[in-house]
Design goal:
182 residues; mainly alpha; 80% helix; elongated; endosome; transport; protein transport; Snf7_fam; membrane
Amino acid sequence: MRHRHGKSFREKESNSGDRAGQSCAGQLKQQRDKLKQYQKKITLQMEKERQLAKQLLKDGKKEKALLLLKKKRYQDQLLDKTENQISNLERMVLSIEEVEKIMDETHDAIEYQKQIDEMLAGSLTQEDEEAVLAELEAITQGDADLELPEVPEEELPEVPEQEPVREKEKVKKNPEREMLAL
């Protein structure tokens, strides 16, 4: 059934489903990008704090430098967690995209099957049906007319376990021939 804008209701449903899937994958991608931005920000901040800790050590403020290095270590652990989250998000995006691809392929296959069903359901005339049945009969008759060769009833000869020595190999192993050839 066609909607007044030219799309069927099924097409509208599948498009809204695509948007939901795209928004889910899109949201995951946005989250991944935010995590990457956070990661860059923390990395820059950690480098600044490291430089500041060096300066504090030069100024004789060991306690403050130690505190900054502890903070840097904590942020480094946060970066590791962030990296794991980014990896998980990327795997989830790939999984969602794979599922969407499978769903699209399945939808296409269902539509194709429906087209075939509709074509077979009523579009063949009685004459076409008879022609199809005649062709089927001809194919099955063709298989029945196929003659196969007779299978021998006697037993096959036994195959020796060792390979027979070829004449060329006998010639090579004969030392008298080698001496004559010299």
